[in-house]
Specification:
Largest sheet: none
Number of helices: 3
Number of strands: 0
Mean pLDDT: 92
GO biological process, one term: transcription by RNA polymerase II
Helix content: 25-40%
Bound molecules: zinc ion
Distance between the termini: 30 Å
Shape: flat
Strand content: under 5%
Low-confidence stretches: none
Structural class: mainly alpha
GO cellular component, one term: RNA polymerase II, core complex
GO molecular function: DNA-directed RNA polymerase activity; protein dimerization activity
Order of helices and strands: HHH
Radius of gyration: 18 Å
Pfam family, one: RNA_pol_L
Keywords: DNA-directed RNA polymerase, Transcription
Oligomer: single chain
Length: 86
């Protein structure tokens, strides 16, 4: 989506930005298993940074919060509330 906003305060633009970010369904990386790390960054730093990435896609629209998932009783280990990336 592209749009142009004119003749308004930056606080209005910031409010619109916050609303748009909140309304786009995203998933986040919650569990990271690192098999080997030869970088200068430690595993916890990399895991934390991965968790900050908002991931979006068509599938994110239909996913459930793991705490509300009745298919796995909130374990977060089923196809309705989790995705595994390798
Ligand atoms: Zn589930």
């Amino acid at each position: 989506m592209k749009f142009e906003l004119r003749d308004t305060d930056s606080c209005i633009a910031n409010a619109l930005r916050h609303i748009m970010i909140a309304e786009v369904p995203t998933i986040a990386i919650d569990l990271v298993e690192i098999e080997g790390n030869s970088s200068v960054l430690n595993d916890e730093f990399i895991s934390h940074r991965l968790g900050l990435l908002p991931l979006t896609g068509e599938r994110a629209m239909s996913m459930r919060f793991s705490r509300d998932c009745d298919a796995c009783d909130g374990d977060g280990q089923c196809e309705y509330c989790s995705v595994e990336l390798n």
